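User: Second chain of the day. Same drill as before.
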Amino acid sequence: MKKYSGIIWGLVLIAIGVIIAGNSLHIFNVDLFFDGWWTLFIIIPCSIGLLTDKDKGGSLIGLLVGVLLLLACQNVIDFDMFWKILVPTIIIICGLTLVFRSIFGRKIKEDIEKLNKKIGEDGTISAVFSEQNISCNDQEFKGNNLSAIFGGIELDLRNAKIKEDVVINATSIFGGIEIIASDDVNIVLKSNSVFGGAENKRDGKNEKKHTVYVNATCIFGGLEIK
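Assistant: Same format as last time:
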């Protein structure tokens, strides 16, 4: 669904344009500036995220916040009730997300735990309030631990020698990580994200190729594989 996000956004803009034109020509009268209209800047992107993103936890929480704020602005609920509902619901959603990921990602988790033992002592890259650009040119790649905290990391594996399955443990906290993979490997992404997201732009899988497992944790951060 990710590839349709442009189409969905286009339809939203067309709908807004039609409403503005209809109001201007007095064909109909739709009030775009109702009480709490600004919550649509939360509700619409999060609704689209539920349709297009693989990692839907952040979008679901954002949609919940937007809808509750709209109800509060419309005096359906008061703001005291807003906080009473919001906090426990977010905790429940995060808990359910972790439970389902643990259940359905058990096989991948077991593979990752085995491959973690192969990462060497020099396989840790950190970017804290800084940028790191790493290129593995004609080097054997055995996996990495990446940490971007208020910083960014770019890991280029296009010319790396990958002779077996490997794992990349990537943590992004208020930061960004970009992994550029070579064409002769498969990519398997396991994501644990809270108000962040991880995206794999690589398609397809070839059983004859080695696999790079990406174990991503994104908290107000992002990871992209291409």
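The two ends are 17 Å apart (CA to CA).

User: Great, on to the next one.
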